[in-house]
Design brief:
It is rod-shaped, with a radius of gyration of 25 Å. By secondary structure, the chain is an alpha+beta fold. Helix content is 55%, strand content 13%. The longest helix has 41 residues. A 4-stranded antiparallel β-sheet has the order 3-2-1-4.
């Protein structure tokens, strides 16, 4: 091997080393960004209030209910079945809002992702499918006198 070949190989090694260092820096930055995102999502809450103000539900990032507030007049305004349906509709609305918020927070990562889990493991749900907003469901009513519309509290629209 000639001295020119050795010099050329050293140059190629240095280029590869610089590329690897750059890739490591990008990986570290993305890892930090994902950790920050994970923390923001874990602290996130969404709430919804029924249109008549009788019910307010707060959910965490997983959609689990972490708070329920019923007004003093809720029992007088609604039958037990209707109040149950109102609570369910309000909780559903809050969970849908939370899914939308999480999808917005993760959008930069899902848009940038060129490869997703199903590309590697066929049949597995991917991040895009998990974070996609789901269509709302309408509860079955036992009482026709309650208002099905649900308004989100300010700051969560």
């Amino acid at each position: 091997m000639s001295a020119a070949d050795v010099g050329s190989m050293r140059g190629q090694v240095e280029v590869l080393r610089a590329q690897i260092d750059s890739m490591q820096d990008v990986l570290l930055e993305r890892t930090r960004s994902l950790a920050d995102l994970q923390e923001r999502i874990a602290r996130s809450r969404a709430s919804a209030r029924s249109s008549d103000g009788c019910v307010e539900i707060v959910v965490d990032a997983s959609g689990a209910i972490v708070g329920v507030t019923l007004s003093g007049s809720s029992y007088g305004k609604h039958s037990p079945a209707a109040l149950g349906n109102l609570i369910l509709a309000t909780a559903t609305s809050a969970a849908e809002d939370m899914r939308r918020q999480v999808a917005e927070m993760t959008k930069p990562f899902t848009d940038a992702a060129r490869i997703d889990l199903p590309d590697l493991v066929p049949g597995v749900l991917g991040l895009r499918e998990i974070l996609e907003p789901r269509p709302s469901s309408t509860p079955v009513t036992g009482d026709e006198h309650w208002d099905r519309t649900v308004l989100r509290s300010s700051g969560n629209v």
